[in-house]
Amino acid sequence: VVDIGKLYGQAGLFTYDPGFTSTAACESKITYVDGEAGHLLYRGYPVEDLVARGDFLETCYLLLYGELPTVKQKHDFDDKVTRHTMVHEQMVRFYQGFRRDSHPMAVMVGSVGAMSAFYHDSTDIADPHQRMLACIRMIAKMPTIAAMAHKYTTGQPFVYPKNDLSYAGNFLRMCFSVPFEEYKVNEVLARAMDRIFILHADNEQGASTSTVRLAGSSGANPFACIAAGVACLWGPAHGGANEAALKMLTAIGTPERIPEFIARAKNPDDPFRLLGFGHRVYKSYDPRAALMRDICREVLAETGGDPLFDVALELERAAMTDQYFVEKKLFPNLDFYSGLTLRAMGFPPAMFTAVFSLARTAGWIAQWMEMIADPSQKIGRPRQLYTGATRREYVPVGRRG
Ligand code: ACO
Fold first, then answer.
1. N or C: which terminus of the chain has fewer CB atoms within 10 Å of its end residue's CB?
2. What local confidence, expressed as pLDDT, does residue 128 receive?
3. d(CA 318, CA 172)
4. What Pfam families does the entry give (predicted)?
5. pTM for this structure?
6. Best of 233, 267, 274, 277 to mutate for ligand 1, by most ligand atoms within 8 A of CB?
7. Ligand 1 pocket, 40 CB below 6 A?
8. Which helix (H) or strand (E) holds 363?
C-alpha cells in the first residue's frame, strides 16, 4: 500500500501490485480456477466433464448464458452460429493487403479489429440485440478468419465454410482442404479439435481476458475489444507459449539433452525458461495439461506418432522430480502439449496461437458481456507509482550545450 500523500501531497492510499498478483479487478460468475487443487470450472461445471461429454458450441452457450442449453436451445444456438460463418466478401480483399508472409496472428489482430468496419450494425453496445449479434458473429466467424489467415499465409486459395459440417470439422476443412482434391473430415481429429477448443475456452482473468475487459471498459465495440485480446494473447508468456514450447522441444530433440535444458532453466543468470511450464494461478498440475496430454496421445495414434512426444513426457517427468520445479510449484501448463497436438493435426507452428485465439473468443465475449451488463462497471484506470524526475526547469535547446 502506497501513501500517495507522501509522494505528491495528495490525499489517499493505493496498492502497488505489479502484475496484479493479488488484486481482483472485477467480480465474475463465469470461470473458477482453484490453482492449489488444480480445478477449472466453467459456470460450475468441471472442464473434464465438458471435454468428455459436451461440445464446444454447448460450452460457448454455457459461458455466455450461464446455463447448459436444452435440446431446443442448443439446436437454435448451433443453427444461429452456423448461419453466420461466412465473412463479408470485402474482407477477402482486405486480407489481400497483408504481406504474403505475414504471421497469422498479425493477420488475426488486423482482421478481427477490421470486423467493426464490416459489421458496424453490431457495434452499438447500448443495444442488447446488437451485443448478442456481435457475440454470435464472433463465435461463428473466428474459425473462418483463422482459416483464412492460414490459407493466406501459406499462399493457398481461401476455402469457404461448409455449414453441414460440425464447428470443428468445418474449421479443419477450411484449413486443410485444397482445390481439386476430395476432403473428408477425419472424425477423430475433429473430435480432438473440438475438445481442444473447450480446453482453451476460458481461464478467468488471464492477461488477454483482462485486456478485453479493460478495452471494453471504455465503451469500445466488441470487435475492437477482442482484437485487443488477440494482440495480448500473441505474447510468448501467454498464448504464444504453445509455439515457443514446440520450438524448445525441437531444440532439445532427444531425451539425452533434457538435463542440459533443465540446468539452463534453473540458472538464474540464463533468461531461458522451460516453455509450457509454470502458471500464475495453477500451483499444482494444470488440469488442462493432463487433458491435452491425453488428446495428444490420441491424435498421434491417429496420425502416426512423433518422437518429440516422448521427449515431452520425459521432460515432464524430469522436471516433476527436480527440486527447483517442485519447490517453485512449476507444472506443465496447457501450452506444453498443445503445440505437439496441433502440429500432428497439420497446423504449422505459426497457427497455434491463432487456434488458441479462436477458442478463447468464447471466454472473451462472455466476459465482455458480463462486464457490459454490470451496473457497477467503471472505466479501468490503474494508478502508477511515479518514480521519474521531480519538477524541473525547461532549458531552451540552444543553452543545453
Ligand atoms: N522455467 C523455469 N523457471 C520458471 C518458469 C519456467 N517455465 N516459470 C517460472 N519460473 C521461476 C521464475 O524464474 C521465478 O523464480 P524466482 O522466484 O527465483 O525469481 C519463479 O519461478 C516465479 O516465476 P514468475 O515469473 O515470477 O511467475 P509468474 O506468475 O509471474 O509467471 C509465467 C507465470 C509467465 C506463466 C511463467 O511461469 C513463465 O514464463 N512460463 C513459461 C511461459 C509459459 O509457459 N507461458 C504459458 C502460460 S499458460 C497460458 O497462457 C495458457
1. C
2. 94
3. 35
4. Citrate_synt (PF00285)
5. 0.93
6. 277
7. no
8. helix 352-373
